[in-house]
Amino acid sequence: MAESLSSRPTFADETPAPPGSRVTIAERANLGLATLQARKGQDAALRDLIQQQYGVSLPQAPAISRAGTIAFVGLGPHHWLAVADGQSHHLAPSLKAAIGPLGSIVDQSGGYVVFRVGGAAIRDVLAKGFPIDLHERAFPPGAAATTVVAHIGAIIWRNDDHDGQPCFDIAVFRSLSRSFWRWFSDAAAEFGCEVKQH
Questions:
Q1: Phi and psi of 189, rounded to 5°?
Q2: Domain annotation covers residue 3
Q3: Among 10, 84, 89, 123, which is disulfide-ready with 32 (CB 3.0 to 4.6 Å)?
C-alpha cells in the first residue's frame, strides 16, 4: 500500500511556499470513506433510512449532501461515496449495521486519499488537468463529478467557499496519490502553493 502523504517529502519540503501563494492543498486525515450501493428495489427504502439515521438526503445526481460530520457524494444511479470526519475505522461498520439488507457497503478508508484544495487561483490550476467545467455557473457549491485528472481517475466535489475562495475536495486512489501530488505541484507552481495541515 502506498505510504501516507504526511510520511514522505512534500512539495512544501522541496520548495517553500512563496509569500502571497494563491493555491492551497491539504491531505484530509483520519477520514472514514465507504461506497454505498442500494440493492435492487431498495433505493427508496435506503433513502428513507439514511434520512432517519443520519439526517441527510442521499443526492439524486452527481452532488454532495451533508449533515454534521458525514456527507454522501453521488457517484451514479443508486451509488454513493460516504465521507465522515474522524471515522477512518468506524464508518463502514456503522453503515453496515444501520442499513442491513437494503444496500452493500465497501470500506474505502484505505483505498482513497482525499485532498482539499482552494485559493484564488485554484480553478486555473484544476483547468490544466480536469476536462470538466469548474466555473461557478457550472459547478457551484454542492456539485460533484466522477472524472479524470491527468489520466488519473478522480472524484471531485465543491465545498462551501472558504475565506471567500472556492474550495474543492478531490479523492484519488491511494496507489495513484503520489502521481496526483506531482501533477498538482507542477500545475500550481506558477501561482505559489501553500501546503496546509487538515
A1: -55, -40
A2: no
A3: 84
pTM for the predicted model, two decimal places: 0.89
Rounded CA-CA distance 125/127 in Å is 5
Full pLDDT tens readout for the chain, 198 residues: 444 444 443 344 545 566 678 999 999 999 999 999 999 999 999 999 999 999 999 999 999 999 999 999 999 999 999 999 987 889 999 999 999 999 999 999 999 999 999 999 999 999 999 999 999 999 999 999 999 999 999 999 999 888 889 999 999 999 999 999 999 999 999 999 999 876
Helices marked H in the chain: 11-14, 43-54, 91-99, 122-126, 177-188
Is the CA virtual torsion 142, 146, 148, 153 positive or negative?
A: positive
| 80 and 35 within one domain | yes
What beta strand segments (E) does the chain contain? 23-27, 31-38, 64-67, 70-76, 79-85, 103-107, 112-118, 144-149, 152-158, 167-173, 193-195
Residue 30 per-residue DSSP state: S
Residue 178 C-alpha cell reads as 503520489
- The total number of structural domains that make up the chain: 2
